Amino acid sequence: MNPVPEGAPAPAPRLELLTREGCHLCTAAREVVAAVADDVGLPWQETTIDGDPALTARYGEEVPVVLVDGVPRDFWQIDPVRLRSVLRRAMGGAGA
Length: 96
What we know:
Elements: E1 15-19, H1 24-40, E2 44-48, H2 53-59, E3 65-68, E4 71-75, H3 80-90
Helix pairs in contact: 1-3
């Protein structure tokens, strides 16, 4: 692993929302994640767990789930304040 030079910006965290088809909580979570990601200037992706046995086994009862750099950070009802705080810390503490 190569060290990040001092003063270099931290790499952008990877933000992912795990969802299922027909999930009403996923609809609300999608709106929260989109708004927070836009606010902090971070791209995000949505992944459906439907059809993926490994993801369904791991997250099936917790969807929607927000992952930051692959680590589950929130599930069911996504808290925008908590998500913003987690992302800002992951982005190097700006405004945390």
